[in-house]
Amino acid sequence: MTDRPIKWSYMDHWRAQGPAGPYDQWQSKLAMKRFLQQVAAVGFDAIDTFDFRIWQIFEQYGSVANYQEFVQEQGLERIVNTFHGVYYSPDRYAPEVPATHATILDDFRRTMDMWSGIQLDNIIVMPGSRFFDEAGVSDDGLKHAADVWGQVGEITQQYGVNLTCHHEFYAGIRTRDQIDRFYSYADPQYVKFFVDTAQHCIADVDPVDVYEKHHERVTGFHFKDTRHTDVNDDYRMFPDAEVSAKTTEKWFYEMGTDEGLVDFEAMMRSVRDHGYTGWISVEHDKADKLGGDYAESTAIARWYAKNVLDGIYTEEVAR
Questions:
Q1: Which of 61, 148, 151, 311 could form an S-S bond across to 66 if both were Cys, CB 3.0 to 4.6 Å?
Q2: CA–CA distance from 131 to each of 23, 101, 122, 230 (Å)?
Q3: What is the pLDDT along the chain (319 residues), one digit of tens a residue?
Q4: Where are the transmembrane segments (predicted)?
């Protein structure tokens, strides 16, 4: 880090409209170059990505290090975090099911080796499977999940990377009680917390309050907004409530949106008061729904970060 206590990274959700229809930045090197230059132009410092992109990285750039060099050539510092997106299934890959733990551990040994060409801060996981019943994960299941993520965290820290947990509103570890119990069982040395402001609000969890409770193990944030709390049990929609829910067509909005539920000013004051320094990631998940536009949302969010949130953080630092 430089003398700036907070820097802003952009999670690489993106779609644009081309002559042949919508495309994303991974379509070609030219599309990626334009995406990265747009993100840099509005003032972001770095990017995050998904680790399932590794195969496209190998195909298009030859190595992770080559891809990061390409990112840097467009004016960004580096790749900060990667999100470990896998299909959870109780018969082969589920943190709450001990019989699947060997598969999970083998997966992370391979994954960390593939990303070892660069220095990441965090690898982000969904700590619980997608439970569609009201009970969610049992207490024993929470203990099993805490145990395997502790073992995974030992693996990732061998590479200098934090294992950090991100709680989707449709996942089994979603309520405040489940979150608190999970972290009471998880080793704080190896299992960290990644706060997603919108996901917590949708699950009726106050993101500021849950951060206050667990701030000592927080290693990053997704800052995005929502206008909706899930009051219809949409989290039970299969296979993914973010796209399957019939009552809410668009869950996520950029910071600064009208009628947003996240109190970002309070969030930033809490971040500041607890002495957090490092990266905050902006995420625009499915921003193009209902006529939205990724480029517009990204510019609005960056304006809000620069003109509202950075000022809140630095006003106390300057005293």
A1: 61
A2: 32, 18, 25, 15
A3: 457 899 999 999 888 888 888 889 999 999 999 999 999 999 999 999 999 999 999 999 999 999 999 999 999 999 999 999 898 888 999 999 999 999 999 999 999 999 999 999 999 999 998 766 667 789 999 999 999 999 999 999 999 999 999 999 988 899 999 999 999 999 999 999 999 999 999 999 999 999 999 999 999 999 999 999 998 888 877 777 777 787 888 989 999 999 999 999 999 999 999 999 999 999 987 767 777 888 999 999 999 999 999 999 998 555 5
A4: none
pTM for the full model?
Answer: 0.95
Distance from C-alpha of 177 to C-alpha of 155, rounded to nearest angstrom: 28
